[in-house]
């Protein structure tokens, strides 16, 4: 049994094709670049990369996302220094696309640093409207502000609050809760079986995640949209957190309307049985998405819209 199979043995019952999943953890994901359409176009970036002999392909998710084989240090290339693109995992970019931000809206990114999703949201808003990008760590905010400046983004202000106690003075049309997590979706092993890309967690993450999700929901206007995202497989950080929200607030879990291979949210885990609405959540695995592992839930503040009979 491989080291990855031993590490994730508890998840074998719900990860589809568990053997292929474990094998994929010995392979680095294909590099994904998000083209900064505030400054350039995908065609220009693709041509720049091909001139440097890189194989560039469009992604199935969005025209603004390019997949580049054998590119290991994208931040060192000319295009990155010019703010023409941002290196971002394909599954990570899905969070902002699922949020579906619109120009002119008021949006909160509750755990924003270092800014990959904040800058993507601004790009989708055509740099119009206002984003409040919050992070509790001042040093991380400095990196976020640097990235926003490099990408030419002007519609974002930064704040430094613990997300779970973010002030409720204003309501937002959309909120992103990209929660701190155990980061299992980034775990990789080298050819000698040594674990790389492991993130070290601190404290009781599920408690923090539940608090962040509840505060994010309470920041929404009626009918507003929230995305809850993690880069981990652990149901305690995913479905169990969503279950807490459904028991505490009149929330609706909405389908995610994008084209990427995924599994549905779990029905059960160990002694837990989850609300059937959680099946609208997405689980993304590296052997099917060819990216990092992710979990996504799209949440509406209040009951389903009257024209959404498919929701329950």
From TrEMBL:
Listed PANTHER family: 28S RRNA (CYTOSINE(4447)-C(5))-METHYLTRANSFERASE-RELATED, NOP2 YEAST -RELATED NOL1/NOP2/FMU SUN DOMAIN-CONTAINING
Regarding protein family, the annotation reads: Belongs to the class I-like SAM-binding methyltransferase superfamily. RsmB/NOP family.
Q: Which organism is it from?
A: Candidatus Entotheonella gemina
Q: Which residues form the active site?
A: 231
Checking SUPFAM superfamilies in the record gives:
S-adenosyl-L-methionine-dependent methyltransferases
**What positions does the domain SAM-dependent MTase RsmB/NOP-type occupy?**
21-302
Q: Which Pfam families match?
A: Methyltr_RsmB-F
Q: Which InterPro entries match?
A: MeTrfase_RsmB-F_NOP2_cat (IPR049560), MeTrfase_RsmB-F_NOP2_dom (IPR001678), Nop2p (IPR011023), RCMT (IPR023267), RsmB/NOL1/NOP2-like_CS (IPR018314), SAM-dependent_MTases_sf (IPR029063)
Q: What is this protein called?
A: SAM-dependent MTase RsmB/NOP-type domain-containing protein
């Amino acid at each position: 049994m491989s080291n990855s199979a031993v590490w994730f043995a508890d998840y074998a019952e719900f990860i589809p094709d568990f053997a292929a999943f474990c094998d994929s953890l010995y392979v680095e994901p294909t590099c994904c670049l998000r083209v900064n359409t505030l400054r350039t176009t995908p065609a220009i970036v693709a041509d720049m990369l091909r001139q440097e002999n890189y194989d560039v392909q469009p992604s199935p998710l969005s025209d603004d996302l390019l997949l580049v084989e054998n590119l290991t240090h994208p931040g060192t290339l000319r295009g990155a220094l010019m703010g023409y693109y941002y290196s971002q995992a394909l599954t990570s970019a899905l969070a902002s696309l699922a949020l579906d931000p619109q120009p002119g809206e008021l949006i909160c990114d509750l755990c924003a640093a270092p800014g990959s999703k904040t800058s993507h949201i601004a790009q989708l808003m055509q740099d119009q409207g206002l984003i409040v990008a919050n992070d509790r760590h001042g040093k991380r905010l400095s990196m976020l502000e640097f990235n926003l400046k490099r990408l030419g983004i002007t519609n974002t202000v930064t704040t430094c609050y613990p997300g779970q106690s973010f002030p409720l003075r204003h309501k937002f049309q959309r909120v992103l809760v990209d929660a701190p997590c155990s980061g299992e979706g980034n775990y990789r092993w080298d050819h000698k079986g040594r674990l790389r890309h492991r993130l070290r967690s601190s404290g009781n993450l599920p408690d923090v995640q539940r608090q962040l999700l509840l505060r994010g929901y309470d920041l929404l206007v009626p009918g507003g949209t929230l995305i809850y995202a993690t880069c981990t497989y652990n149901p305690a950080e995913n479905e169990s957190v969503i279950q807490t929200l459904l028991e505490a607030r009149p929330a609706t879990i909405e389908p995610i309307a994008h084209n990427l291979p995924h599994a549905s949210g779990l029905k059960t885990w160990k002694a837990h049985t989850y609300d059937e609405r959680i099946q609208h959540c997405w689980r993304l695995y590296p052997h099917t998405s060819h990216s990092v592992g992710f979990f996504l839930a799209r949440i509406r503040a209040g009951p389903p819209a009257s024209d959404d009979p498919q929701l329950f």
